[in-house]
Amino acid sequence: MRKLLVLLALIPGAALADETIASGEWQLLALDGQRVNYEASFAIDAAGSVSGKAPCNNWFGQNQASLPALGLGTLGSTRMYCDRMAEEERFLSTLGVMTSAERIGENLVLRGAGRSMEFSRDPGSKASICVSCGD
């Protein structure tokens, strides 16, 4: 009986973590442990729809896994050109291989295939600390 109570006590915490991942838009702070100097974002809702902004275009798709796991598969995007196309390609290709999402402090870290993406609600804030960066 005691083991069952402990297990039940853990389940709401897992649901809360998933809800905080899926609430609102996250702004890109770092890619593979290096801070970025462009704007990009990630959002996921409770139904698994994912969307955001890459450096040039809006992107969208569906998470085929249950949080905190990610299975983004093929992502769609608008098709506008800008001077940040190299950053856009790197952002979208990295996003496509992410397999997990984890809240670390106030940040969201996505990981997969030896790569990482770190997001913050407000990356421009002086209080925003990059947990995956070497700085």
TrEMBL record:
Signal peptide start-end: 1-17
Superkingdom field: Bacteria
Keyword annotations of the record: Signal
Domain DUF306: 19-115
The keyword DNA repair belongs to this UniProt entry's keyword annotation: no
Keyword presence, Transport: no
Entry protein name: META domain protein
Originating species: Pseudogemmobacter humi
